[in-house]
C-alpha cells in the first residue's frame, strides 16, 4: 500500500490539549484529543495513568474542566456545532452526561468558573447576557445586561466574582467588575476610560488573598497589573519587554506570576517575582506557548509549538523539561520553518509577516493566508494547512495586518470605524512586495482565509480584482447586513463596536464593506466552504453571495459541511484542504492534491 502523502499525515497525527486538573484532586485531569479522528474530551488519572474517553459527539468537543472534587468533567454540549447549548457533567470514569445547572436555559456560553462549594456560569441569549452563581438546582442570576458580559473567575474562597463587561458600550474594549458572588453586589470596578481595555487574568491562589491579576492597554501595549479590589490599589508590573504580555498563571504561594510575552509572532515565558519586581526568562527555544499553568508542586505544564514541528504538551520543573502527554500513533512529519519579514504598506506603516516557501528555486505560486479574528495574529505555529500548500509548490505569506493583536494598541484599534479596508491595504502590500522581489509569480496568486480571513478574501477579490488569481474563503462573512441580522448577539455587539453602529444607523458603511456589494467586479474563481449551523457567519448570507456568483457566471464551487464555525473532524479538514488544492489546480495549473 502506498504511503499517504505527508500533508495528509500532518492532519491525521493525533494532537492533545493542555490538561486541566481538579482543584481538590490534582491527579484527576481532563484534556481534548483528535486521536479518534474528531476532537473529544478524555479524563486522565495521573495516579493510575488511565485515560477515559468522555465524549463521542460527531461534531466534536474541544475542552473540558474537572469539577473541584474530581468526580466529573464539565464540558459544553451544543447542537451540531452551532455553539448553542449548555454545560454538562460527565462522570470522571465515564458514563452519561447530565446538565450542570438543570434549571438554566440553553444559550451561547459566556464563561465558566468552578470552585469548591460554588460555580459561576455565563449564558448569552437573544434576550441578553446573564451570569449565574450557585450549585446544582440552586443557581441565581447575579448579573444581567443587554451588553456582553462573561465570567472572569471566582476568587479562591469563591466569595468574589470577576466579570468582563461592556456596559460602557464598546465590546472591543471591555472593563472589569468585581461582585459579591452571593448577592451580586458590585464591590469594585476597573475601567480606564473609553477606548481602553481592562481584562481579568486570574485571582491569587492563596485563600484570603483578594488580589486579582489584570491586563490593561491604556499605556499602548497590553501589560499585567496586580489589583486589590478591596482597596482599589493597582500595581503595574515593572517590565522592559518590547511586545505584549499576558498572565498565564500564579505560582501556588502567590509569590510570582507566570507571564507570556508575545513579540513578532513568537512567545516566551517569564517568571515574575512580585517581592523583588524581577522577570526571569524561561528558556524554551523559538516558537509559541499557547497555554501554560503552574502545578501545586511548582511544575509548569505548557503547550508548545513552532512552525516546523508538531505541537507538544510538556512539563518543566527547574532545568528538567520533558514531554508530559504524548499523543498515540505516528507523529506529524516535519514542515518548513517560517521566516520572519517586514514590508511597507502604502500608508506609512511597517507590516510584519511570516513566509513559508519550498526549497526549490522560484518564482513560486503564492498563497496569501489571512488570519481570522480580526483580533488575532499569524504566529510561528505548526499549521498543516500552510505546510500542505508548501508541499504542492506554493510560497505562503501570512501577514499580521492592522487589526491584529500583538503589535500594540494603535495597530489593533486601527479598524474601528474602518473595517475591511486597512487589512486589505496591508495584505495587498505584502503580495506586491514579494512580486517586486521576484519571489512569486504575479499570475498565480491565491487569496485565502477563514472567518474574518474568509471575509477579507471575498472583500479582496471584489475591491482589488486585479491582484488575485483565485480565492478560497472558509466560513466567511459574504453579505454583511444579512450576516448581522442572523448572527449571535455577542457578534452583533462586536459589529456595532467595530463599525460604530448598526446597519440601520450606518447603511452606507455596511454596504460598502460587504463583499456582496462588489461581486460585479470579481474576476477570480472562488471556492467557498462554510458550516451549515454556523451562528458567527451564518449560512443564509453565504448562500446569497454564492447565488450572485452563479447569476453572473463567475466560476465557483460551494461546499457546505455539517457543523458550525469550523469542523473538529480531521476528515473534514483534509477534505477541505484537498478541495482547495484541486480547485486552485483547475484554474492555475498547479499540482492537484496528492
Nutshell version of this structure?
With 594 residues, the protein is of the alpha+beta class. Helix content is 17%, strand content 37%.
Describe the structure.
A hairpin with a 5-residue loop joins strand 29 and strand 30 (350-356). Strands 5, 6, 7, 8, 9, 10, 11 and 12 form an eight-stranded antiparallel sheet that branches. The protein has an eight-stranded mixed sheet with strand order 29-30-32-31-33-34-35-36, with helices on both faces. The mean pLDDT is 96. It has 594 residues and is of the alpha+beta class. The protein is globular. The protein has a domain at 339-588: Alpha/Beta hydrolase fold, catalytic domain (Rossmann fold).
Q: Tally the helices: what do you get?
A: 10
Separation, N- and C-terminal Cα atoms: 15 Å
Class from secondary-structure proportions: alpha+beta
Assigned CATH superfamily of the domain at 339-588: Alpha/Beta hydrolase fold, catalytic domain
Runs in which pLDDT lies below 50 for 5 or more consecutive residues are none
CATH top level of the domain at 339-588 is Alpha Beta
What gyration radius follows from the Cα positions, in whole Å?
24 Å
From the spread of the alpha carbons, the general shape counts as globular
* Proportion in β-strands: 35-45%
Helix content: 10-25%
Describe the biggest sheet? 8 strands, antiparallel
* Overall average residue pLDDT: 96
Can you count the beta strands?
Answer: 36
CATH topology of the domain at 339-588: Rossmann fold
CATH architecture grouping of the domain at 339-588: 3-Layer(aba) Sandwich
